[in-house]
Write a structure and sequence with these properties.
It contains 5 helices and 14 strands. By secondary structure, the chain is of the alpha+beta class. The mean pLDDT is 94.
């Protein structure tokens, strides 16, 4: 029987006191907490399966609340995500839910979050994002970035930019979003990495590629986390490795 394996990990990093990242894999959510070891889940391939991360906006209040609202909304509506239109609609709902939660408490009025993930269907995968969390698909010995970073261009000499041009929530007045969506065929042996920028900012792409060439599942997740920590662990680190196979 064909199946999907999801190996997930979330850690605050070395410099942040709180973990404002959240994660969803099917009905399972991980919000603002720490996994001491990579967690592996197995799902049947066929029904819609959503795997995503959300990164609460740093420097603004209640990022952990915003990211939790986003992934819990995705988990609730995940079984109905049968194509691009459905994914677009639920991302719009996530944005409205974050704004609605922010409106309940003036101290949280500008809370916001990124989101990035993939919905696996029987023969296609819908990649989506808002913000600068990422989805990378492993091809022939290389990773292809399928998400689109919502950041302004970096200044000369900079590799990363922390400013966001759009997010879920993040402003006092509700704004619309323009999510990025890409549909790819679900080829045999599909592999992808869904992660927050706590991994991709400190760890160069060639290091991530090398880890994924040499390792898989829990060992790969651990080695990616270790690379981010050895690079200083400046931000929360949350990732999910997604792959298809047979048993």
């Amino acid at each position: 029987m064909e199946h999907v394996t999801v190996t997930a990990l979330s850690h605050p990093g070395l410099l942040r006191e709180n973990n404002e990242d959240s994660l969803v894999a099917g009905p399972w959510t991980l919000c603002g907490t720490v996994t001491g070891n990579p967690q592996t889940l197995v799902f049947p391939l066929g029904p819609p399966l959503v795997v995503a991360v959300a990164d609460g906006i740093g420097g603004q209040p209640a990022g952990e609340v915003a990211s939790a609202v986003a992934v819990r909304t995705l988990a609730l509506h995940g079984p109905a995500l049968d194509g691009e239109d459905a994914v677009r609609d639920v991302l719009d709902l996530c944005n409205r839910e974050v704004h609605a939660a922010a409106a309940l408490d003036p101290a949280r009025s500008t809370m916001g979050t990124t989101v990035a993930g993939v919905v696996l269907l029987a023969d296609t995968a819908v990649v989506f994002n808002v913000g600068d969390s990422r989805v990378l698909v492993r091809g022939d010995d290389r990773l292809e970035l399928l998400s689109v970073d919502d950041n302004p261009p970096p200044m000369p000499g900079q590799r990363t930019v922390s400013l966001l041009t759009q997010s879920l929530g993040g402003s006092r007045r509700p704004d619309g979003i323009a999510p990025h969506l890409t549909v790819v065929p679900l080829a045999e042996g599909f592999r992808c990495l869904v992660c927050t920028d706590g991994l991709t900012d400190p760890v160069p792409g060639d290091v991530i590629e090398e880890v994924l060439r040499e390792h898989d599942h829990g060992r790969a997740a651990y080695e990616l986390w270790r690379a981010a920590v050895e690079a200083g662990g400046p931000d929360n680190i949350t990732l999910a490795l997604v792959g298809t196979g047979q048993e």
